[in-house]
Amino acid sequence: MVRIFSRSLRFRFLAALGGVLLLALISLGALSQWVIFPALHKEERAVVMQELEQIERSLQISQKELLAQVRDWAIWDDTYEFIQGYYPGYTDTNFSQQMFEEMRYQLMVFFNAEGQVHFIAGINPATDLYTTCHTMERECGWAEGLIRTMQASIEEDPQQGKSNLYAGSPPLMVASNPILRTDESGPPQGWLFKVRPMDGAWRDIIEDYTGLPTTLSMVDAPIDKEVAVTITGNTIQAQRYLPTYPHNEQIELGTHLNRTSYLASLETFRYVLLWTACLMLLVIALVLFLLERIILKPLRTLTQFTQQVSVDSADSANLIKRTDEIGVLARTFQQQFKHQKQLNAELIELSTHDALTGLPNRRLFDQRLQEVINIALVTGQPLSVMMLDIDHFKLFNDHYGHPEGDTCLQRVAQTMHDVATNQGFFIARTGGEEFSAMLSATSATQAIEKSEALSHAIDQLKYPHQLSPVAPHVTVSIGICQFDSTALMTPTALMTAADQALYAAKAAGRHCSVVYTPSLANTPFSSHNTPP
């Protein structure tokens, strides 16, 4: 009987397979002990490090955002003139406690060209009171130490244009930039610093953005290593130590991962290895068959589906109708793809359009202007631009209040948009009450006609403006300039010429349109000679 079994192919196959299975069990045990489990531990550390890196990237994004905001303020003609003492109304127009709270600023400090304090605005963290000062004394004395550190930074690196972390409780995110003209010409006339506290509210934002628990604290003693990973019970923690200015303290940025599910996964993995070995012989043939019918073929269809989401096909339709995990995955992917497209569209809309009026913003206007100038240079067609300003809008805001001022801007902007749509040109909001338009294939003469249509449409609104010396309703002044291809005008030069024409219109009594001529270039119009 034994000899019969020994000659049986089935027995030989089973014996060979049993030997292979025993060898596989021994190999799996050794592999799990010396390779798999250490690799899982390494992967666990890598996961928590990835979470920490994601939080750190969010911190870096927050720093870049604050630096961009500082640069927007510092490279601005109004700020450039304010630091020289030529714009007394700058602080009233641009500063308020509401702005500080909405932007999560704690402090803004303007330094003049000698590095001395020119203006301070901030919220005292001890009292939550908003104060503005021209010195570090009295109400702004709480910021003296921080301002001294800023002055030391200026002495070390006058170029600035950077973002640092300052030690404090809580730590502070500080960004700075030299104060220059909008076109960045000429020497800097001072420096602007903005401070944002990295407090509990900031951590809540980071946690909402990343979905990860975040810790932030100061470390008194210097830590030699940049990253530390520790395991305490069922928790694995990772900390990164960030330097602060002036490099005498460190910030500990950390996160943690609960190991309960990981430890359970290890235990489950051991059982999986055992049962896999026991069932390998019985299920391998069935697995190969089912793998092709249930897994591989649907996965190939799913791959094609993910590569061609917008393409309708019978296979894609059947894939979405499936009731198993692959069907759920296909539907989820389709939903996520549509959601991502929607988010991308909303992001593009937010980055290129003004939030209050819905009109394109300065960024989109500048981008389009360069494009239409290039087209005008190639085709030789005329190109005109307009700058429009609501007459005496500051008086309107002072009399009716800023909420009503916002409503006025929205009504005027909608009217301008309607006229621009009918007349076939592009208009954007490029300042507080300032709008700009570009008119392709339009000469200065044609631009005057369209400007009159704009002015007439706004007049028809009859939006009350009791304090306006021009009219009892809201009116606009318009400056026009035609692009001179022979002079190779830059976008900045073109808009500067339109701006000079605008101020010529204001000087002429407002509620009118003026076309730029070379004689206006030497006329001393400025935003401070003519009230807004």
TrEMBL record:
<dbReference type="GO" id="GO:0052621">
    <property type="term" value="F:diguanylate cyclase activity"/>
</dbReference>
<dbReference type="InterPro" id="IPR029787">
    <property type="entry name" value="Nucleotide_cyclase"/>
</dbReference>
<protein>
    <recommendedName>
        <fullName>diguanylate cyclase</fullName>
        <ecNumber>2.7.7.65</ecNumber>
    </recommendedName>
</protein>
<feature type="transmembrane region" description="Helical">
    <location>
        <begin position="271"/>
        <end position="291"/>
    </location>
</feature>
<dbReference type="InterPro" id="IPR050469">
    <property type="entry name" value="Diguanylate_Cyclase"/>
</dbReference>
<dbReference type="InterPro" id="IPR043128">
    <property type="entry name" value="Rev_trsase/Diguanyl_cyclase"/>
</dbReference>
<dbReference type="Pfam" id="PF00990">
    <property type="entry name" value="GGDEF"/>
</dbReference>
<keyword id="KW-0472">Membrane</keyword>
<keyword id="KW-0812">Transmembrane</keyword>
<dbReference type="Pfam" id="PF05228">
    <property type="entry name" value="CHASE4"/>
</dbReference>
<keyword id="KW-1133">Transmembrane helix</keyword>
<dbReference type="GO" id="GO:1902201">
    <property type="term" value="P:negative regulation of bacterial-type flagellum-dependent cell motility"/>
</dbReference>
<dbReference type="GO" id="GO:0005886">
    <property type="term" value="C:plasma membrane"/>
</dbReference>
<feature type="domain" description="GGDEF">
    <location>
        <begin position="381"/>
        <end position="518"/>
    </location>
</feature>
<dbReference type="GO" id="GO:0043709">
    <property type="term" value="P:cell adhesion involved in single-species biofilm formation"/>
</dbReference>
<dbReference type="InterPro" id="IPR000160">
    <property type="entry name" value="GGDEF_dom"/>
</dbReference>
<dbReference type="InterPro" id="IPR007892">
    <property type="entry name" value="CHASE4"/>
</dbReference>
